[in-house]
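hey
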């Protein structure tokens, strides 16, 4: 089996796992699960994380140049290993975004703006969940409910600024990630609009060139008709000359 074949086979199962991860994590945070229910949700989340780890190992095993592939995917390795430390468990969410990005990138290829907005929406939602999970119960935090967390995440992404803020250092890591995501989204939208304007200009130039070409073709047709008429007259004159002689 090749790496490309594995990625094709694993793509949609991993998307399902990622969606299950979002659903379970949402339930865990929004319902504030405790006791056996929280333990069960944690087991489900770790099983999802294990699926991501298996995907990483298989990609490494099937890569033609293993060392090069590993070095170029060190960030994915870090996202898989660091969550073993409890304060860094939120990094599992980065693995989740990476899996969704792989599938969405294939589906929305050529629709970069749509993809960027969808990715920003997913990251914002996950950021709100993470902030609520990390900040819940912290002293002096302004994030005490999911609506407040979602408003904080949206404000952070678009750079609007808000009186609500995070007080724990993992929560501030989430805030930095959302800020970077917001800057990337603005850059993507700006680049896409610029590309669209260039395409519109090119289309206008193409229409102008097509109009000029049609005019030139029409002129050539008129000239050909005139040449045919002159040749016909010349032929008639030659025949009359032959008849006289």
């Amino acid at each position: 089996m090749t790496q490309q074949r594995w990625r094709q086979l694993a793509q949609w199962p991993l998307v399902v796992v990622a969606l299950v991860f979002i659903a379970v994590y949402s339930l865990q945070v929004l319902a504030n699960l405790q006791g056996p229910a929280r333990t069960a949700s944690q087991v489900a989340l770790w099983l999802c994380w294990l699926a991501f780890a298996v995907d990483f190992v298989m990609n490494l095993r099937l890569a033609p140049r293993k060392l090069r592939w590993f070095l170029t995917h060190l960030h994915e390795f870090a996202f898989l290993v660091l969550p073993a430390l409890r304060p860094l468990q939120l990094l599992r969410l980065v693995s989740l975004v990476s899996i969704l990005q792989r599938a969405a990138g294939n589906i929305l290829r050529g629709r970069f703006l749509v993809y960027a907005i969808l990715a920003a929406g997913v990251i914002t939602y996950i950021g709100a969940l993470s902030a609520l999970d990390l900040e819940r119960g912290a002293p002096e935090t302004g994030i005490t409910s999911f609506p407040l967390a979602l408003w904080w995440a949206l404000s952070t992404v678009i750079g609007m600024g808000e009186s609500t803020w995070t007080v724990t250092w993992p929560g501030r890591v989430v805030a930095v990630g959302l800020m970077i995501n917001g800057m990337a989204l603005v850059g993507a939208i700006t680049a896409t609009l610029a590309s669209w304007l260039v395409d519109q200009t090119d289309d206008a130039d193409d229409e102008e060139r097509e109009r000029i070409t049609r005019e030139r073709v029409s002129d050539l047709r008129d000239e050909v008709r005139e040449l045919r008429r002159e040749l016909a007259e010349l032929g008639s004159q030659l025949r009359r000359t032959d008849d006289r002689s």
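The CA atoms of residues 155 and 161 lie 6 Å apart. The helical segments are 3-30, 36-62, 66-72, 74-81, 92-107, 112-135, 146-158, 169-244.
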